[in-house]
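Help!! Second protein's tokens look totally different from the first
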Amino acid sequence: MSTRALLVGATGTIGSAVAAALRAEAVEVVSAARSGADESVDLSDPGDVRAMLARVGTVDAIVSCAGAARFVPLLDATDEDWSFSLANKLMGQINLVRFGAANVRDGGSITLTTGVLAERPMPGSSIISTVNAGLQGFVRSAGLELTALRVNAVSPGWVAETLSAMGKDPSAGIPAAQVAQAYVRAMSTVVGGEIVPAHP
């Protein structure tokens, strides 16, 4: 029986690379994103997440490369900046686990996305660093409770293609295809509650 995976955020830079890496491993990928994918989903809307999961049904894995959070100087950040980021990248991915665990076959996996700014904050990253650190705490604790499946996360650093699109030196980042291999490893690990780095 082939492996079936729901990939949320499948149309982004990392998500597209993860889709290609999974298909190279003969995984049947059901793609989800705000638009341009097999399934449409607004990660910030719990009802929309539930509806998408109901349509997709049973899978062997859920992989999230989705979730937006804002890069804003601390004293310039508005209530809306915080609310948007918490609802999207933090609660959106937490809800994929809360609601999606029932969709995953026993022995399957859910892989989320955090980021290097949890460990290496920089000026302007207060929101993103908080969200990423919160996700890492959630993954570690969920891994202790959800013993029928494995909940892990990948922590990417700067992606070369993203830096290039921003007009910056791509050599300071890691190619998306290389980052994608961290998601393949996270899906195949036999333990839960792990944060898999995809940065130097």
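Here's the second one for comparison:
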Amino acid sequence: MEKMLKQDEIDALFQAARTPVADQGLAPEARARVLPYSYASAGQISTEQLRAISMLNDLFARNLTHNLAAWLRTRFQVNLVSAEQIVFNDFLMRIPEISYVSSVRLEPLGALSVLQLDLALVPPIVDLLLGGEGRDGVQRELTDIEESILGTVSEIICRELTAAWQPVGLSFNFERRQMQTQVARIMSVNEKTLCLSFEIRMPHRSGLLNLAFPAVVANTILRRLTQDWGRRRRHAPDTRQCMDAAVRRIRFGGVLQLPSVRLAASAVENLSPGAVLHLNLSAGRLAEWRVGGQHLADAQPIRQGSHRAARLERPSREAGA
């Protein structure tokens, strides 16, 4: 006798046919979850690689802080703000209408990267180099002299980037300034780039330094960097004690000196033994105790037995920062 199936039995058979064999009898939460794959996320820099980039560029920021502060003879602070992966077109949209943009060649890969510096930093830098206090000024197009000064600043930035990225064998070479219409030709607008943003603080002004270079290049070199970071192990306690003892025996150059002052050329030209040189400093102004070129404290020169000594009065604000 032929059996007639009811509608609910037919629906049950179709449902069983559509259900994979591996999933039958499993709880819903135990079944594999299928998620859509986005090909746009291919080649993304991992979190571990971004952490390694941040560690390298923190070193770059510290070195650039010290070198530019010594060159400009003023307080200068560079901090890493962000490290992110974006398409080159989004980076171009962030560049202000009036800005300094230059191309930087990455050797030995031969790839081009982009360096962008806010023009708000130009007037105080030029004022400092001309003997001023680094006052702010009006943002405008650069003169030939100002462009040459920023070219020197860019070369210093590239030199410090090369020193910081030495573990991955990458060299940054400043090429030339690029006009706004030429920047889009350096890379494809749809190419993924690694964007590094640094904040530069001066006594009277602050601005941004942005770097963008192809993420394909970044992935190639950061693979090696991440592996090197992963292979590092913590030293044994006795090894660390020996290292600490050795570090404590390191000697640093120190000096106790008056703050730097500016003198007229005629005052230096007419110097003779016994002459009094006016430094335009208060008689109560303390000397500066500097170690390794860094101002650590204000101190008073004293005598301790048959030797010279320095009595520390107050720590430096720069050291406390």
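Reply: Different proteins will give different token patterns, so don't panic. The first helix runs from residue 7 to 18.
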